[in-house]
Write a structure and sequence with these properties.
Blueprint (H helix, E strand, L loop, with lengths): L4 H45 L3 H14 L4 H13 L3 H13 L5 H18 L2 H9 L7 H14 L3 H13 L6 H14 L2 H14 L4 H13 L3 H14 L4 H15 L2 H14 L3 H10 L3 H14 L3 H8 L7 H15 L5 E2 L6 E2 L24
Antiparallel strand pairs: 1-2
Length: 377
């Protein structure tokens, strides 16, 4: 059978027309999708500005479906999930980004950092630690180290915290010497006495103006029965950091009494009190006074300088009232009223405690407790 060329000549124009129509349909569909993606993206931004996070998430999901290769949409969606507390969905978004082979190095580091934040917010500290360590050598290295520092503080892993603090100090991210001294003191508190002393000396070398290392060293010397050395340490602290004497006054009085150096300690405490009256220093002076009447006179003089319910309560304890049968009840009532005034208060969050803390139990801030009682603030 002979092939008829006329059919070919007729078919070519038809095929051309069909191809042209198909291409126009594809271009039209592409234009529609390109118009829809920006609209969904801007709609999501508008919802964000109006603090409508649920609608923003729906809009960004639509935008991602229309343009799955855009990494910025994934970042926006993942961050929204994290802010909403939907950490599992945030992790899936950022892990999907990391699985892409075409992702630029900067975007990969950004996704790794976002993934670490997801784990951190979810409380998965071990996975957050692993994700943060992968950021060494990237633009997020400093942020990752600060986050690691927070993790180690939270888990009370003071050895790891010390290592990270030293790296941050060496990289010029700020001064971490005082924080490092705290970490070393925390390690010393958990170590046997023979291992604690080198740690405390290292802490003292790291931050000579931080009072904690000397205070812990004096406590260690007192436990060993070396009251004279403890007294010398506390006296050196009083000269090096005068503002800390309120925290050490009572311990200084005890160590000085045990070592027979009451006169020297009393001289230092009295000089400190004259410069800045303090209830703790006042108590230490009264404890060192051999004459009870002289001790009570210090409380009376303090009341002349400034009103103090705490000082008045202690002065009244040695007084004899006309109605002695009521004296005990009056004394108990005053002590009950004065008790809240003897607490320490965090300057960062206002958390009050009976004892002085180096790290606030409430907000975890370091050195946020002033060395003075609530009544003195």
């Amino acid at each position: 059978m002979d092939f008829d060329l006329s059919w070919l000549l007729l078919g070519l124009p038809v095929v051309f027309v069909l191809g042209w129509v198909a291409s126009r349909l594809d271009l039209r569909q592409l234009r529609i999708e390109n118009r829809q993606a920006p609209k969904a993206y801007f709609r999501g931004l508008n919802y964000l500005l109006n603090e409508q996070q649920d609608q923003a998430i729906d809009a960004f999901i639509e935008a991602v479906q229309n343009d799955p290769d855009t990494s910025e949409l994934h970042f926006a969606l993942g961050n929204l999930f994290r802010r909403r507390g939907e950490y599992e969905r945030a992790v899936r978004v950022h892990e999907h980004l990391l699985s892409r082979g075409d992702l630029a190095r900067a975007d990969r580091d950004r996704a790794q950092h976002a993934l670490a934040l997801d784990f951190l917010k979810a409380g998965l500290l071990d996975r957050a630690e692993d994700a943060l360590r992968r950021l060494e050598g990237t633009a997020f290295e400093a942020q990752a180290r600060l986050a690691l520092l927070a993790i180690y503080e939270r888990s009370r892993d003071w050895a790891q915290a010390s290592e990270v603090a030293e790296r941050l100090e060496a990289s010029g991210e700020g001064s971490f010497r005082t924080r490092l001294a705290h970490y070393l003191c925390e390690q010393a508190a958990r170590a046997p006495d023979d291992q604690a002393e080198p740690l405390l000396r290292q802490a003292l070398s790291a931050a000579p103006q931080a009072p904690r290392a000397r205070m812990e060293m004096a406590a260690l010397q007192s436990r060993r029965g070396d009251a004279a050395a403890a007294t010398r340490t506390l006296l050196s602290l009083a000269h090096a950091v005068p503002t800390s004497i309120a925290l050490t006054a009572r311990k200084l009085a005890e160590a000085a009494t045990a070592s027979g150096q009451q006169d020297q300690a009393l001289q230092v405490l009295q000089a400190s009190y004259e410069l800045s009256p303090s209830l703790d220093v006042l108590d230490a002076i009264a404890a060192l006074e051999s004459d009870p009447a002289a001790a009570r006179e210090w409380y009376a003089n303090h009341l002349k300088r400034e009103p103090s319910l705490v000082a008045a309560t202690k002065w009244l304890a040695g007084e004899k009232l006309a109605s002695e049968d009521i004296h005990l009840h009056v004394q108990n009532a005053l002590e009950h009223a004065a008790r809240p005034l003897t607490r320490y208060r965090c300057a960062a969050c206002g958390f009050e405690a009976k004892q002085h803390f180096w790290q606030c139990p409430g907000c975890q801030a370091w050195d946020s407790y002033p060395p003075r009682r609530v009544e003195e603030l």
